[in-house]
Write a structure and sequence with these properties.
Arginase, Chain A; two-stranded antiparallel ribbon; 38% helix; alpha/beta; 309 residues; 10 strands
Length: 309
């Protein structure tokens, strides 16, 4: 079995304006790097087409309608202070969601063992009824609900190692006992949520706040708490909210991970979860704003996925 790599063409049409950190070059850098590596263990796929009603399982109908009406005919529109959409964002946001749908279907249909979705815009800050932090639709949350609705899973884990807390994902699943949300993140930091006291209504939220300057060794020691929680919950399917902005070179935060650490995080998680997930893992890109760090970190993350096949 191989690893799926799901990419779209429309991410290039999501224009966030000059100087915005969540820029087109991010995903271009990742995709070009994988093309250059040309690993025969990767199966390249495009996003799935899906009915918009699928998003309504995750976001309120009013919010989805509001977003759909907000895409401009020309120019840029601000959904919040730093979440910007352009005419091409309409297709890009749908393809970001369609990527995780395609990835899940591919794993379920045994086309590949696991998958990584190289997409933008990211999703984990988008709440049920609010755009936020560069995020419009919550891609990983739509994926989790799709697993519940279509494939009837009862235990899904989302591990979010983006340097920012995924307030949106937590918000969406706070009272859903079928979904365990785990986040490691710099704290206190944007978006301000993610304290250890936020546990979910079914003890289904685990936040591991880390101080600025946290080293690789400190992070990997703290990650043992993530693995212990996984062993207790025993998910049937695992989703990664894979942000790479905890890298030491990232301009938007102050954690000190190396690209190699993302390999270690991924490998440890796969080994820990194999007895209950049976390798069913889909990862989707969130943050990461230094292009070289993003290239090397996504490569090492995917290396671990490939090795697990």
């Amino acid at each position: 079995m191989k690893t799926g790599l799901i990419i779209s063409d429309t991410y290039k049409n999501h224009d966030t304006g000059d100087g915005h950190p969540e820029k087109i070059d991010r995903v271009t850098a990742v995709i070009e790097n994988f093309k250059k590596i040309d690993d025969k263990n990767l199966i390249w796929k495009k996003p799935a087409k899906f009915n918009l009603s699928l998003i309504n399982k995750t976001h309120s109908e009013d919010y989805v309608n509001q977003v759909e009406k907000s895409f401009p005919k020309k120019g840029l529109v601000f959904l919040d202070g730093d979440t910007i959409i352009s005419p091409g964002s309409k297709d890009a946001t749908k393809d970001a969601v369609g990527s995780i749908i395609a990835a899940i279907d591919g794993v379920e249909n045994k086309e590949y063992n696991n998958a990584f979705c190289a997409v933008r815009p990211p999703g984990h800050h988008a709440e049920k009824d609010k755009a936020m932090g560069f995020c419009i639709y919550n891609n990983v949350a739509v994926g989790a609900n799709y697993l519940i609705e279509k494939y009837k899973y009862n235990k899904i884990a989302i591990i979010d190692f983006d340097v920012h807390h995924g307030n949106g994902t937590q918000n969406i699943f706070y009272d859903n006992e079928k979904v365990l949300y785990i986040s490691t993140h710099q704290y206190p930091y944007y978006p301000g949520s993610g304290s250890e006291k936020e546990k979910g209504n079914f003890d289904n939220v685990l936040n591991i706040p880390l101080k600025a300057g946290t080293t690789s060794e400190e992070y990997l020691n703290a990650y043992e708490i993530v693995l212990n929680k996984l062993k207790t919950f025993k998910p049937e399917f695992l989703l990664f909210s894979a942000g790479f902005d905890a890298h030491i070179d990232d301009p938007l935060a102050q954690l000190m991970l190396s690209s190699e650490d993302f390999y270690k995080i991924t490998k440890r998680t796969l080994e820990c979860s194999k007895s209950f997930c049976k390798g069913r893992v889909v990862s989707i890109l969130e943050g990461g704003y230094d292009l070289k760090a993003l290239q090397s970190s996504t490569k090492r993350h995917v290396d671990a996925l490939i090795e697990f096949n």
